[in-house]
């Protein structure tokens, strides 16, 4: 697994790029926050003037200024909060949709390499972090405005005391910047561990049965992975937050020290007692916004990491196909006339698995899948049958050679139309309850017939274009997936070891009735099979070994062999 880039300038840039579409609204919300902050400062100045008795204007004037500033502070703060909330909600919704769009467009092999658990952490954890950040932006701008406004007021009130306060704040900022780097490094390590934890959570949920049966594995998963990672995250986050808390405490110490110094110089005459009183009062008030600014730093830094991860995901998924979400009526599905072919095609897994150190190369392969015929792909485990199937389905792009439909190359421009020719039941299929593409009455009737033939009547019904349930046994689920594939009306049907989970009766039915019926209907069938008893029903058999097609047999030969056997 490759680590994502560090949250340096790159992730800051990623953050700014992702925020770019919202810059106007965000700026307005921040502007409202700044107005609210300055109005609050004006309110404080009015109070300070009243306390110090420095007002040349009358009390009525002061009261008017007080009410005006107060109302403006409240109104601007409400506008700022609502504005930030709107931007935050929109940003999160857009990120969710944008990432889903990217995943729907991502080439399948890139998705497989990225891994499910890492996708889950980005889609959940990182987006949550960004929404937290978004809700902190406007209050942050108000806090900044209050801080700046108060500092300006303090400078006017007592310039010498202001210089002392500035020296103290600069020292405090230096301390904060030292702890920031340590904190960020901790957050980055914790974010890597979040990926690991999600991986373990998936094992927990998906491997529940195996874990219940296997005590050593269960203990290892819980103790060495989940507990160890959760504790490591706890320690790392605590350490990182601890650095921020340390910096904040050092800042507070300096702050209170400064107030003590100022008060102890009260009698040296650098400011009158009343002015000093107002000065300290405002200083104490401004400590709140300053703490808020400092307290939000961890959120900003963690959001920066999250923005970096999202940008990293976008960088990894490169798709040359840009219209996968175009509504169907704008897409022309090509009429399927003849054959699907591979010409000198090869594919290599670019990232080696630990159990396959030298990688796996399929091909070069030359083949033709004739229309309206049954093609079997056979061969040992690991010989490349599923990989070949994924290339034929247009899911993996051959790195060399070409995939052709009726002699015309399948390209980025027409690959998605090409894929719409297929319906499949792959070995790791996902069974959707919804029947795809609003089935017609004839299709629904066909589905009901198939459900009956496959022994599913009484278990599954069709209601409102969906199957009533998918809670079935493994073999039944595969039979239901078969029904799904057949009723789509797609011209090419693909089955990856479909019969492997079926009892002898359904296996027999599949090879001797269902496949021949589909061929009679003009469907083209590509079937991965290990059932040598039924090889004779194929019109063509491609036998694979070590990534190559080593023999291609046609109907006559296959049937002759079948008879001899
Ligand atoms: N995503 C992947 N990344 C790296 N290597 C892979 C990946 N998927 C498959 N392989 C490797 O490619 C080889 C061919 O796998 P494939 O699934 O095509 O074989 P198969 O003939 O369908 O096997 P089986 O009969 O067991 O289903 C295997 O050695 C496998 O380790």
TrEMBL record:
Subcellular location(s) of the protein: Cell membrane
Pfam entry (one): ABC_membrane
Entry GO terms, CC: plasma membrane
Domain ABC transmembrane type-1, chain residue ranges per copy: 26-302
UniProt keyword Nucleotide-binding present: yes
Topology versus the membrane: Multi-pass membrane protein
InterPro entries to which the protein is assigned, alphabetical: AAA+_ATPase (IPR003593), ABC1_TM_dom (IPR011527), ABC1_TM_sf (IPR036640), ABC_transporter-like_ATP-bd (IPR003439), Cyc_pep_transpt_SyrD/YojI (IPR005898), P-loop_NTPase (IPR027417), Type_1_exporter (IPR039421)
Key words, A-Z: ATP-binding, Membrane, Nucleotide-binding, Transmembrane, Transmembrane helix
GO molecular function: ABC-type transporter activity; ATP binding; ATP hydrolysis activity; ATPase-coupled lipid transmembrane transporter activity; peptide transmembrane transporter activity
GO biological process: peptide transport
Residues covered by the ABC transporter domain: 342-565
Transmembrane segments: 26-47, 59-80, 133-154, 160-179, 241-263, 269-286
Full protein name: Cyclic peptide export ABC transporter
Species whose genome carries this gene: Paracoccus onubensis
Lineage: Bacteria, Pseudomonadati, Pseudomonadota, Alphaproteobacteria, Rhodobacterales
